[in-house]
Specification:
heterodimer; A: alpha/beta; Rossmann fold; Alpha-Beta Plaits; 2 domains; 14 strands; elongated; B: mainly alpha; D-Maltodextrin-Binding Protein, domain 2; four-stranded mixed β-sheet; 15 helices
Chain lengths: 333, 399
C-alpha cells in the first residue's frame, strides 16, 4: 500500500530524514517509533504530500507522492500533531468545511458527519464551538476530521500527545477499531514505547533520520534477549550489598542491578538459573517478598539498537497538557 | 472538478473565514472602531484651514516718533488691537525690547512677537518704508509659518488702508473713498473651485483613506490570515485536501475583500454623515475602483505570504511596506507638497493611483473616461504582481 525508497529530506543542509525505505501492507498498523527530532513527523508530512522529498521516492496506493500528489491526497487522511480545527466554528461546521473541500455530496456528507460524531460520542456537541472543547474532545475531532473522506490510508502523527490517560486509552481503542472494522492501513508515529507496543503490527525504530530496526514487537524484543535470557525482578525485604555481589558472581547471571533498597533486576541465562539464584538468596538469609519474570520492553530494544536511551532527547519537548488553549492568539485584523 | 470545483471550494474557504471573523466579537468591534478613529484623528488634528486663534504675541514699540507729526506706530498698534479683539486671532502683551521677546519665546510664554523699529514714523515722513519685524518661534515651524502668513496679511491690509488715505490726500478732487483702493491695488484675486461648495480636508482625505483601508486589508490581511493558519496548523488541513492550491488564496482573498469593502463602506458613510463630505461621482464607480485596487494588491499580499514563514515576520514585512505607502501615496498629504525625489517614489506606488482616481471620482465627479491613466496603472500592476505571485505561492506551499 505504501512504499518508500531512499526517502530523504534535508532542511538547509540538515538531514532530517536519511534514505528511509520501508513498505506497509494493506490493513496494517505500522509504527514509527523514535525520540523527538528523529524525523518521524517529516516522514509523515512527506507521505501526506505536505513536504517534498529532497531525494528518493514514495508511493501511496501506487501513486507517486510528488507527481500524483492530488491522487495521493484523495487516498489519505492526516491526523497531525497540531489540531486541525477552527475554534470559532462548531463541530459540525468544521467537519462540513473540510468535507466540502473533498467534494463530498451534501447529503452524503451530512449523514457522515453525524455518524462520525456519534462514533466518538460527540453527537450532542455538534453545534458547539470547538474552542470550548477539552483537549481530549479536540483530539477526537482531529481524528474524525481525517476520516471524512473515508481514506484508505490514515496517517497519525503522535495521536495521543498531550492527552490525559483516559483520553489516551480512548483514542488508542478507536485507532484499533477503525483498523479492524474498515481494514484501514495506518501509519502512526510515537515516542511512547507502550503505544507502539500496544497498537502496531510492525514497528520501525527511527533515530537520527534513519530506520535502525524494523520488525514486529516480539521479534524486536528477541533481538535483545536472545532465546535464553530471562529477566527477573526480586523484591527482597532485607537486601544487602553482599547479597547483590554474590548474585552478580553467579555463572548463570549476565548482569544484576539494584534498582532501589529492596529491588534487584537480574538478567539470567540457562534453564536452572532461577533455582540457583533463589538458593543463593536463601543461603544469605534473604526474605523474598516477590519475584517477577520480566519481558524485555521496547525501551530495552531501543537502548540495545541505538545505544542511547529514548529519553535522552525525548525530554526536550514535553508538551504541556492542553497547551494550545493557553497560547496567545495573535490575530491581527 | 475544474473551474466549478475551484470556485465552489474557494467560496467554502471564504465562508469559513467570514464565519470566524463574525464570531470574533472583539475583532468586529475593532473593525468598526478603526476607521472611526482614523477619520476623527486625522480629521481633527489637521486644521481644515490655515486660520490661527488665541496666539499670544508680544508687541515692542520702539518708535521714537517725528517731531511735529502724529505717531504712525500708534495708528498701527491701534489697528492691530482692533483686529485682535475682532477676530480673537491673538492676544497682545507689551514687551520692552527685541531681546525680551526672544527670552519670552524661549521660555514659552509667547508664540511670537512684533517689533516696530525706532525710526518707524520718521521713515514714513521722509518717504521711506517703515519697518516692522516679526519674530517667530522656530521650534514650531508649522506655527511659525501660520503666524508669519497671518501677520503679513494684517500688515498688508493696514498698509493698503494707509496707502488709500495717502492717495486721497494727493488729489482730493479725482480720488475718493470709492476708487482709492483700485489705484493702490489694481488687482483683486478670487478663488473658485471646479465643483460648488466648501471643501474641507475630509473631502481630500476620505477617498485616500478608503483606498488605503481596502487595499491594506488585502495586502496585510492575507499574509496575516495564512501565516496564522500555518502556525496553528490548520493550513495543513486544507493542504492535504485534493484541492487546487489557488483555492486557498482565492477564498481568502474574497474574504479579505469583503472585509475591506465593509470597512470602506463604513468610512464612506462616516465621511458623509459625520464629516459632511459630499460625493460628486458615481457610487458604483467608487466601488469598482476599490475592487480594482484590491486586485492590484492581491499579488503583493500573496508574495509576502509566500516569503514570510510566520506571523511575526509577516507583520514586520507589512509594517515596513505600509508606512511609506501611507505617507507617500498622497492619502494624508498632497503629493505636490513633497520634494521631487519623493514624488518619484510616490508615482511608483499603486496606492497613489487608486487614491487619486478615487479622489477625482468622489470630489470632482469624474467619470471613467477621466481616470484612464490610473485604471491602466492599477490593472497593469495587478496583472504583473499576480503573474509573479501564483508560481511563487505554489512553490512556497510545498517545501
Amino acid at each position: 500500500m505504501i512504499e518508500t525508497r531512499n526517502l530523504t529530506k534535508e532542511f538547509n543542509g540538515l538531514v532530517a530524514v536519511d534514505h528511509i525505505s520501508f513498505s506497509v501492507k494493506r490493513g496494517e498498523i505500522f509504527g514509527l517509533l523514535g525520540p523527538n527530532g528523529a524525523g518521524k513527523t517529516t516522514t509523515i508530512r512527506m507521505l501526506a504530500t505536505l513536504t517534498r522529498p529532497t531525494a528518493g521516492t514514495a508511493t501511496v496506493g501506487d501513486y507517486d507522492i510528488v507527481k500524483d500528489d492530488n491522487e495521493v491526497r484523495k487516498l489519505i487522511g492526516l491526523v497531525s500533531e497540531k489540531i486541525i480545527m477552527y475554534d470559532r466554528l462548531t463541530a459540525k461546521e468544521n467537519l462540513w468545511f473540510f468535507g466540502r473541500l473533498y467534494n463530498i455530496q451534501k447529503e452524503v456528507l451530512n449523514t457522515r458527519i453525524d455518524e462520525l460524531l456519534e462514533l466518538v460520542q460527540l453527537g450532542k456537541w455538534k453545534d458547539v464551538q470547538v474552542g470550548t472543547f477539552s483537549s481530549g474532545m479536540r483530539q477526537r475531532m482531529n481524528v474524525i476530521r481525517a476520516l471524512l473522506n473515508m481514506p484508505e490510508v490514515l496517517l497519525l502523527d503522535e495521536p495521543t500527545l498531550g492527552l490525559d490517560p483516559q483520553s489516551t486509552v480512548e483514542v488508542r481503542e478507536f485507532i484499533k477499531k477503525i483498523n479492524r472494522e474498515n481494514k484501514m492501513t495506518i501509519i502512526l508515529t510515537t515516542h511512547m514505547m507502550i503505544e507502539a507496543d500496544l497498537l502496531c503490527d510492525r514497528i520501525g525504530i527511527i533515530d537520527h533520520g534513519k530506520i535502525a530496526a524494523l520488525d514486529t514487537s516480539p521479534h524486536l524484543k528477541r533481538r535483545v534477549s536472545g532465546a535464553d535470557t530471562t529477566i527477573f525482578e526480586f523484591e527482597i525485604a532485607n537486601l544487602t550489598t553482599n547479597m547483590v555481589s554474590s548474585i552478580q558472581s553467579l555463572e548463570c547471571v549476565g548482569s544484576a542491578s539494584r534498582d532501589n533498597a529492596t529491588r534487584i533486576r537480574v538478567h539470567a541465562h540457562g534453564n536452572n538459573a532461577f533455582d540457583i539464584i533463589i538458593d543463593t538468596i536463601r543461603a544469605e538469609k534473604g526474605k523474598i517478598n516477590s519475584v517477577k519474570n520480566l519481558e524485555p520492553t521496547l525501551e530495552d530494544v531501543f537502548l540495545h539498537i541505538t545505544g542511547h536511551d529514548v529519553r535522552d532527547n525525548a525530554d526536550q519537548k514535553i508538551p504541556m497538557k492542553g497547551h494550545r488553549r493557553f497560547m496567545p492568539r495573535r490575530r491581527v485584523r | 472538478m475544474g473551474i466549478r470545483g475551484l470556485i465552489s471550494q474557494s467560496l467554502m474557504v471564504t465562508w469559513k473565514d467570514l464565519m470566524e471573523l463574525f464570531r470574533n466579537k472583539m475583532g468586529l468591534i475593532m473593525l468598526v472602531l478603526m476607521p472611526i478613529f482614523m477619520m476623527s484623528m486625522v480629521g481633527f488634528i489637521y486644521p481644515s484651514d490655515t486660520s490661527i486663534s488665541d496666539v499670544s504675541i508680544a508687541l515692542v514699540n520702539d518708535d521714537e516718533g517725528h517731531a511735529g507729526y502724529p505717531s504712525a506706530s500708534a495708528m498701527l498698534v491701534a489697528a492691530l488691537e482692533q483686529m485682535s479683539t475682532d477676530t480673537g486671532m491673538m492676544t497682545i502683551t507689551n514687551a520692552s525690547s527685541f531681546d525680551e521677546v526672544r527670552d519670552m519665546i524661549q521660555s514659552g510664554e509667547i508664540d511670537g512677537g512684533i517689533v516696530i523699529s525706532s525710526n518707524f514714523t520718521s521713515s514714513l515722513i521722509v518717504g521711506k518704508q517703515g519697518i516692522v519685524t516679526i519674530v517667530t518661534d522656530e521650534s514650531n515651524p508649522q506655527m511659525s509659518m501660520s503666524l508669519q502668513f497671518a501677520l503679513k496679511e494684517v500688515f498688508e491690509q493696514i498698509g493698503t488702508w494707509v496707502a488709500e488715505q495717502n492717495v486721497q490726500l494727493l488729489s482730493p478732487t479725482t480720488i475718493n473713498a470709492t476708487n482709492s483702493l483700485a489705484i493702490v491695488k489694481p488687482y483683486s484675486v478670487r478663488t473658485e473651485g471646479s465643483v460648488p461648495g466648501e471643501l474641507s480636508y475630509f473631502d481630500f482625505m476620505a477617498p485616500g483613506l478608503m483606498a488605503m483601508t481596502v487595499m491594506m486589508s488585502v495586502m496585510t490581511g492575507l499574509p496575516a490570515a495564512i501565516s496564522h493558519e500555518r502556525e496553528v496548523g490548520t493550513l495543513d488541513g486544507m493542504m492535504v485536501a485534493p484541492i487546487n492550491r489557488l483555492t486557498i488564496i482565492l477564498g481568502k482573498t474574497l474574504a479579505q475583500t469583503a472585509r475591506g469593502l465593509l470597512q470602506g463602506t463604513l468610512i464612506l458613510t462616516l465621511a458623509v454623515v459625520l464629516f459632511g463630505v459630499t460625493i460628486h461621482g458615481s457610487i458604483l464607480l467608487i466601488f469598482a475602483l476599490l475592487l480594482l485596487g484590491v486586485f492590484s494588491f492581491v499579488g503583493l499580499g500573496v508574495v509576502i505570504t509566500s516569503f514570510a514563514k510566520d506571523q511575526e515576520t509577516a507583520m514586520m514585512v507589512m509594517m515596513t511596506l505600509m508606512f511609506p505607502m501611507m505617507f507617500l501615496s498622497g492619502v494624508f498629504f498632497p503629493i505636490q507638497q513633497m520634494p521631487w525625489y519623493m514624488q518619484d517614489i510616490s508615482r511608483a506606488l499603486p496606492l497613489t493611483y487608486a487614491a487619486t482616481a478615487l479622489r477625482k471620482v468622489m470630489v470632482l465627479g469624474a467619470n471613467i473616461g477621466m481616470i484612464t491613466t490610473e485604471l491602466a496603472v492599477l490593472i497593469g500592476f495587478g496583472a504583473v504582481m499576480t503573474t509573479i505571485a501564483v508560481p511563487v505561492f505554489k512553490r512556497a506551499m510545498t517545501k
